[in-house]
Request: fold
Amino acid sequence: MDTVNIALIGDGFMGRAHSNAWSQVGKFFDPPVRPVLHTVCAREADKLARFAERWGWQNTSTNWHDVVTSADIDLVDIATPNDTHAEIAIAALKAGKHVACEKPLANTFYAARQMRDAAREASGKTSTWLNYRRCPAVAYAYKLVEDGVLGDITRVDAAYLQDWADKTVPLIWRFDNEVAGSGTLGDLVAHVIDMAQFVTGELITEVAGAYLKTVIDQRELQTGDAGGGIAADTERTAERGKVTVDDTVAFTSLLSGGGVATFQGARQAWGNENRNRLEVSGSKGALRFDFEDMNVLWLYDATRPRGVRGWTRIMCTHAPDHPYVDNWWPDAHLLGYEHTFVNQSYDVLLSLAGQEPTVPLPDFEDAFQTQGVLAAVQQCAESRQVVPLASVE
Ligand code: SOE
Reply:
């Protein structure tokens, strides 16, 4: 296979991020297989035609069923709202395609399990766009922990905080539990759950003390598509609808190595515009990451003589030590959000050619583990009881 024909399902915010990744990866990396932007599929033909023209997709379709079963397609890339992931992914896997799916895996634990089971039976490879693993600083943190720099992990403190969801934002799909399956929990905290498990190399085994709160419980109904942003301005009506998901999330959990991990998430955390942050402490030191300063990793080496101990600021742009940066720019010429998707598309292409990715790719098994944590948090918030992941149905 020297080329891979890609079908993208969805032309919204993630459709743009993925289109950019597939069109850029061959310019900055030398993937073993070349991606072809073969077909993009979405509901509205006029918007779709403009999207295809802008991003260089060769074909368009408004019928995803035909696309995912077409003999012309090798990989199906799912960038649609959460309630559509399972049907599309399972159809694509049954048709022998590789599948790259946006996060969270699905809007329900049941649908996510169906996707995980389909992947187990399928010949195609799966991946999930948990893209923050591919910030060079996060990938380097993974390597440092794997090399034992922190020793035994004792605690994790993680949060994903945004502040876009004020009362002027209409009732977009992210506020509808039927479509999204949760609010901040699945949209944001899924990322830091995956990051915590990825960097520590450990899994969350139980959840306690979970709270899920809706801050703004009514929003204006919208007409038309929310376009390419999280909450791009749209026409709205004076009529209002009920928000049926969480805005604010907090919970505590146990890690498989015995440490304790605490998580927060919010969409009205004023002053935190896209603050996806992680602190990991071990018996020999600690690491800190904050996506709003995404090229930097902070390291505290607790084995140093006390007089000289302190946080070291590492600019993770020093090739070849820091993952991916060899293919981008010289020291401190800084990467951004879109580079994490290009880095991930490179690793997907490596995996399709049977080669090892730069750092582990989250497949449907990994994403299902994260979905289990989401379900455990929802059950814990409901029951006020400790929920072992093994008990989640
Ligand atoms: C909206 O909250 C959002 O676009 C998430 O859906 C993405 O996963 C995150 O990377 C940025 O914020």
The two ends are 40 Å apart (CA to CA). The first helix runs from residue 13 to 28.
